[in-house]
Amino acid sequence: MEWSGTRQGHGEAAGSPQTPGTPRAPRQDRTRGRTSGRAPDTLALLKAEFDGTHDVWRSDMGTVCVAGPESARAVLGNRDAVVDEASDFYRTRHGDFGPRDAQIRIGRAARVLIRRHLDARRGELPGLVAGHLSPSASWPDAGNLLVLRHLRDVLLHRDAPPQLHATVGQIVHRAVLAGARHRHSPPSRLLFRRRAQNVLHTEIRARQRRSDPARDARDLLDVVVDESDPGSDPKDLAEVYLSFLFATVGSVGFALGWSVYLLGTHPDSQAAEPSWTVREALRLWPVAWLFARTPRHAQTLGGAEVTPSDLLAVCTYLVHRHPTHWERPDEFVPERWAGSVPDGAYLPFGHGPHTCAGATVTMRLLEDLVELITRDWRLSVTHDGAGPQVGPALAPPRFTAVLSARSDCPGRR
Ligand code: HEM
């Protein structure tokens, strides 16, 4: 994950690190100024260009856009080696972090660690919701900070150096929260980035010296250090660690924000199954909404001719609203998940070999939180009608959510 550049991901807009999903690292020389990273107009442009019929087309932005489910799956799944193999999550400024075996080990170990943590700490969620979200809170930051609080010990164990704890907290405020980069001047961002990198690199070197693959990882930084190959560059490991920070605090927080926003603006849906709400929120507003890949050879993709000099931009936002595959594609209809849905046109966690390693733990946490919020609280939302905050990740607009306790709920008796 990079601290700057044109890359897309789950993080804050250009200038911040990237997390899984969405245009990966278009090569800088080929993409500067013409990639999907140029938020906030990118989403509007893509929507305007998509005619509902041509699933793959050459965009005015210079990319080849992919909006059809079959083509999107062909590219992301890459079974026929149509694109260069790549994972946005493991992309660093030096290229792809690897080898693939290490990527897989890291993804698995991270999932195990987070799952254990969720099991052990589930009982804390009602108190966190009451303490962080009621009586009212400003979103989407509230969602990110709640997730940070809940996963704090997984991100960094309690005994990690205080300076590192402070740095990770600052990274969240300066780079992960939606619009964070606009809150600080460019020189201040540059200075902070250097300081933060130093702190991270120092800690990673220290942990590499003590690394023991046989020990249980205490936090995600241990996972990255212990499961990577010996001799891995601390700078690359820092970027992979930041991918986890963005995936957890950023993406999960934004996804929670979308669920709360949609429930608040559709009060009649507050009784819907939490799992339907979360799925539908991720359909309408896939946090990881745009993925970049490079064709491996000249070929026809969805009726369009593409070559290795093209940049493919797979847009799951458009896949998820494809009029041929979804009924009432632009409407929030959680109930659709009670029946059969076009699975092949639903890719919130990607598709194929690089499918999100954290998908199951993410869904579980989101469903638990949405269940708590709708079961124990009455939710109302005020907002100024602004659209999504479009960046590497698709974040909800700013809104205020008021939670008032239900006298009739089981948790409050
Ligand atoms: C709402 C939350 C999340 C969303 C929407 C999301 C989405 C994605 C997507 C779309 C990809 C595929 C990227 C690609 O094909 O280039 C991905 C990859 C990945 N995600 Fe997530 N993610 C989320 C949360 C998490 C969490 C909590 C973790 C922590 C374990 C995680 C770990 C990973 C890893 C390790 C990969 C790389 C998989 C590989 O290449 O083998 N993600 N994620």
Molecular structure report:
The chain has 413 residues and is α+β, with helices and mostly antiparallel strands. It has a single domain (28-412), classed as Cytochrome P450 (Cytochrome p450), CATH 1.10.630.10. It is built from 13 helices and 13 strands. It has helices spanning 28-31, 41-49, 69-77, 100-121, 125-133, 141-155, 162-176, 186-210, 220-227, 234-265, 274-284, 316-319, 359-376, and strands at residues 56-58, 64-66, 91-92, 95-96, 136-139, 290-293, 299-301, 304-306, 312-315, 377-383, 389-390, 394-395, 399-405. The protein has a 4-stranded mixed β-sheet. A 3-stranded antiparallel β-sheet has the order 5-13-10. Strands 3-4 form a two-stranded antiparallel ribbon. Bound molecules: protoporphyrin IX containing FE. Protoporphyrin IX containing FE binds at residues 20-21, 24, 76, 87-90, 103, 107, 110-111, 114, 244, 247-248, 251-252, 255, 287-288, 291, 348-350, 354, 356-358, 361-362.
SSE order, one letter for each helix or strand: HHEEHEEHHEHHHHHHEEEEHHEEEE
The amount of beta strand, in percent, is 5-15%
Low-confidence stretches: 1-40
How many separate structural domains?
1
For the record, the CATH architecture stands as Orthogonal Bundle
Task: Sketch the major β-sheet.
Answer: 4 strands, mixed
Q: Helix count, per DSSP? A: 13
State the strand order across the main sheet. 1-2-9-6
CATH class: Mainly Alpha
Question: Which value, in Å, is the CA radius of gyration?
Answer: 21 Å
- The helicity comes to 40-55%
Q: List the ions, cofactors and other small molecules found in this model.
A: protoporphyrin IX containing FE
